[in-house]
Amino acid sequence: MNKNYYAHETAVVDEGAKIGSGTKIWHFSHVMGGAEIGANCVLGQNVFVGNKVKLGNNVKVQNNVSVYEGVFCEDDVFLGPSMVFTNVINPRSVIERKNEFKKTLVKCGATIGANATIICGVTLGEYCMIGAGAVVTKDVRAFALMTGVPARQTAWVSRAGMVLGEDLICSETGEKYKLVNDQLKLVENE
């Protein structure tokens, strides 16, 4: 079989999994047969990707992350080491709730820090940044920096991940942003 991705010899990729070219799957990872992974992704050591999970292109999944059924990550998402997704609101070991999985959407360019927890059923907006150890219980706006337990917005960040000052100009790229109806927007050619 000719494959256009790399899987370490200890990785398990079940038959039927769709994996894009240039993707790398490292030690002791497991990709279920119903998963779809885009091009140029990296799955670190000990990563699990469940059935019906979709990862876009250029998604980085760091060590010890489980991406459970119901999670969809768009392009350019970063999932930090040991961060956690859930897919059931009220799990019990003796009650099967597989028909109650809640969807979680992580939009383009979002970053989730190490050891953060994302409670199922939320949407994380484009280029948002979830701080290490934060617990996200509700939807997150695009470009929002969320920290704490439960997570609260503490700042705005640019596409480059830099905290924005009052001028809403990225210190790294010079990109300009503006607030429109309490949502941060990138200023295009103004």
From TrEMBL:
This is N-acetyltransferase. It comes from Maribellus luteus. PANTHER family: ACETYLTRANSFERASE, ACYL-[ACYL-CARRIER-PROTEIN]--UDP-N-ACETYLGLUCOSAMINE O-ACYLTRANSFERASE. The keyword DNA repair does not apply. Gene3D superfamilies: Hexapeptide repeat proteins. Signal peptide: none annotated. It holds the Pfam family Hexapep. InterPro entries: Hexapep, Trans_hexapeptide_repeat, Trimer_LpxA-like_sf. Belongs to the transferase hexapeptide repeat family. It comes from the Bacteria. Keywords: Transferase. SUPFAM superfamilies: Trimeric LpxA-like enzymes. Transmembrane segments: none annotated. One of its GO terms (molecular function) is transferase activity.
